[in-house]
Amino acid sequence: MNRTILSVRGLHVCFFLRGRTLHALRGIDLDVYEGESLAIVGESGSGKSVLNKNFIGLLDQNGRITEGSIRYYGMYDKMKHNPAGGTDEEGRPYCDLAKIARREDWLRIRGSEICMIPQDPMTSLNPLKTIGWQISEALMLHHGMKGQMAKDETLHILEEVRIDHPEKRYHQYPHELSGGMRQRIVIAIAIACQPKILICDEPTTALDVTIQAQVLELLKELKSKYNLTIIFITHDLGVVASIADRVAVMYAGDIVEIGMAEEIFYEPRHPYTWALLSSLPQLGQRGEELYAIKGTPPNLFTEIQGDAFAARNPHALKIDHLEQPPYFDVSPTHRARTWLLDERAPKVEPPPALKKLRTLGGAVHD
Amino acid sequence: MTDHILEVRDLHVTFGHGAKRFEAVRGVSFDVRRGETFGIVGESGSGKTTIGRTVIRVNPATSGSIRYEGEEITGRISKELDRKIINKIQMIFQDPMASLNERAKISYIVSEGLQGRGIPKQEIEQRVTAALNEVGLLPEFASRFPHEFSGGQRQRIGIARALVMQPEFIIADEPISALDVSIRAQVLNLLSELQKKRGLTYLFISHDLSVMRFICDRIAVIHLGRIVELCETEELFRHPLHPYTRALLSAVPVPSPDYARTAKPLSYDPSIHDYSTDKPAWTEIVPGHFVLGNNKELDGYRKQMEK
Fold first, then answer.
1. Which of A10, A79, B120, B149 allows an S-S link to A68, with CB 3.0 to 4.6 Å?
2. Do B260 and A241 touch (CB under 8 A)?
3. Which residues contact A34 (CB under 8 A, 6 or more apart)?
4. Alpha carbon of A38 to those of A155, A170, A199, A331: distances in Å?
5. In what helix (H) or strand (E) does residue A20 lie, and over which residues does it extend?
6. Which H or E run contains A85?
7. B262 and chain A: CB distance < 8 Å anywhere?
8. Distance of CA A161 to the CA centre of its chain
9. Helix (H), strand (E), coil (C) string for B194-258
10. How many CB atoms lie within 10 A of CB A140?
11. Residue A22 burial class via C-beta count within 10 angstroms: exposed 0-12, middle 13-18, buried 19 and up
12. Is A365 on the interface with B (CB under 8 A)?
């Protein structure tokens, strides 16, 4: 297994809203390894975007980290004289992103170390500047390039993200390009910064399926070329299956299950993961009812007693309503937060329909 | 003889004039059978929404005909027929956040179509309550505003608004794309339950083929304003013929890592069609399976089907 590049421990994030406190993240533990692609899945409001905003210091004004640490191991000397820096038990230097307070410190991390591709390419580019200007801006800021050198590099990056006629595109504006092309430009800007971690927040939801497939291909290619670590936020399980090495399932501000992609898809253990997978239309039979999760996610303004999913869980045990389950290890790479894995728990089989996932194939064979 | 509720023949829809003239729908023909779910799938800009909007008379048709229960509904029609069509054909929109009037109460939003036609207030109230019940919302919600509801609930309100008119034919334009995975299942179930109970016919417009496969009886694949293939859902997934259909099907992400990692999506290049001398025709290649192609291509498709 590769080295850890990002290590989150006991992270709590709260938002303060008109005198009320919303507990958005409730004790996240997560390790991200160098060169892997980790997918974070969950419903809207599960906290997957909030978690990732912590990594680039873009939490909303009224949000605060109340507890926990985010150790980033990617920069070795830049943070030597910073209060956020330190060395861990094994002597590896790190930088605690949860402790960074100054804007200047964030500027050294954002972009050049950790970079984010936002969801909608229509709104994330500057409509008044040319494509070339927007990419070379990143090169000038992060690598101190100038003039012809910046232009050459920009053209090179445009080729890298498979944009045809880079010379022509260099002088074009975002509105002249299609959605898929624009998303490639956004990726180009991210790549220009040469980050170690690339956070992709639903980068393909706004795109058509055929374009989505191409963008995913591109991301995979760039990942192996630059040894990028990719954190992929999405609710589309089809996309997860094609890109992720590991998958973390989030529910109500907590990671309820994490494991290798095969483990999550083929041997899920948490009832929430079961429910999420069962509601896939691919597993449904036409004319029959599709499995749907009953109820709504819990209100995070109130404190959650026991397992957050208990109220919607048909397999809930008595203890689920009383005490939060710890993580149970299923394999060295797979763990889940459910009392069903306790040795005293009754044996509950996952829904039989999930077996179909193994045999799912594409519709077109050549 | 199958009972066609909607017949569309050689429909053209153009926008703009002169140099800006743009043909969004370029000669589309299809029939929708009573009680079925007919799907139109295509990418953005393919004209699928325009077809839906033309059927409900929001966009005027440039040429061609649309017949609802045998009656022509394009162009100028009588007031009576217009009123009948408004009742019988209803639409459910994509984004439940944008399609509800933020400043109106749910009771008004749902009942708006019934207002001003001399229906007693009491009856309107009853029908609103019934519609809300039917989509699984509490009648108390009638006095609330849209912002108090979640995305799934809002989509239910959108469905109630259509149901209150007691329609026969519902055009659902991407009704679940804006919703969360778990909510999608609920709304899909609701739609098929209502179909069974009321014998509704759906025209389901979407870009998501995995949802289409689950809900549609027949699917038409549309590309740049032309339907390139039309057949029963399972037939389409088993024997896709047109290269565009094949590319589209291969690009659908499959939620199974073993398969998804090795899958290579096909790409579609329209220049493979040589239509300079041999013009393409809309042909029924086996009963119920239509495809657009010229003679040479059709021969190829026939051979493919025999295999």
1. A10
2. yes
3. A2, A3, A4, A5, A196, A227, A229
4. 30, 32, 10, 17
5. strand A20-33
6. strand A85-87
7. no
8. 21
9. HHHHHCCEEEEEECCHHHHHHHCCEEEEEECCEEEEEEEHHHHHHCCCCHHHHHHHHHCCCCCHH
10. 16
11. middle
12. no
Q: Which two tokens stand for residue A302?
A: 């109130």
Closest CA to B282 of B213, B218, B231: B231
The alpha carbon of A12 is separated from its chain's Cα centroid by a whole number of angstroms, namely 17
Q: Is A364 on the interface with B (CB under 8 A)?
A: yes
Q: By CA distance, what is B254's nearest residue in A?
A: A238
Instruction: Please report the pLDDT score of residue A82 as a whole number.
Output: 67
Q: Domain B4-272: which topology?
A: Rossmann fold (3.40.50)
- ipTM higher than threshold 0.85: no
How far does the CA of residue B236 sit from the closest CA of chain A (Å)?
9
Q: Does B211 touch chain A (CB under 8 A)?
A: yes
Considering only the beta carbons, identify the residue of B188, B249, B256 that sits closest to A281.
Answer: B188
Comparing alpha-carbon positions, the chain B residue that sits nearest to A243 is B261
What is the reported pTM?
Answer: 0.87
Look-up of token digits 């109630």: B160
Angstrom distance (rounded) from CA A314 to CA B183: 17
Structure tokens at A220: 């995979």
A348 touching chain B per CB within 8 A: no
Which of the residues in chain A have pLDDT under 50? Answer: 365-366
* Cα–Cα distance for residue pair A366/A294, rounded to 1 Å: 40
10 Å CB burial of residue A106 (0-12, 13-18, 19+) is middle
Distance, CA of B28 to chain centre: 14
pLDDT tens for chain B, residues 1 to 307: 568 999 999 999 999 888 888 999 999 999 999 999 999 998 888 889 999 999 999 899 999 999 999 899 988 889 899 989 989 999 998 888 888 999 999 999 999 989 888 889 999 999 999 999 999 898 889 999 999 888 888 999 999 999 999 999 999 998 888 787 778 888 999 999 999 999 999 999 998 888 899 999 999 999 999 999 999 999 999 899 999 999 999 888 888 888 888 878 888 888 888 888 888 888 898 888 999 988 888 888 888 888 7
Dist. CA A182–CA A173, nearest whole Å: 10
Between chains, do B252 and A357 touch, taking CB under 8 Å as contact? no
**Helix (H) / strand (E) containing A152:** helix A147-160
Answer for the pair B270, B292: CB distance below 8 angstroms, yes or no.
no
Contact between residue B121 and residue B77 where contact means Cβ atoms under 8 Å apart? no
Angle value at C-alpha A326, between A321 and A329, nearest 5 degrees: 130
Q: Where does residue A17 rank: exposed (0-12), middle (13-18), buried (19+ CB within 10 A)?
A: exposed
Tell the residue number behind the tokens 């909030």, with chain if given. Answer: A50
Domain ranges of chain B: 4-272
Contact A361 B210 (CB under 8 A): no
pLDDT at A302: 86
Q: Are strands B63-68 and B4-15 parallel, antiparallel or unpaired?
A: antiparallel
pLDDT of residue B278: 82
- Position A348 scores a pLDDT of 86
| Extended beta strands in B37-187, E state | 37-41, 63-68, 71-72, 89-92, 169-173
Q: Which helix (H) or strand (E) is A94 found in, with range?
A: strand A93-96
In this structure, the dihedral spanned by the alpha carbons of residues A85, A87, A92 and A96, taken in order and rounded to 10 degrees, is -40
Which residue type does B120 have?
P
Q: Which residues have C-beta within 8 Å of that of residue A189, sequence separation ≥ 6?
A: A134, A135, A138
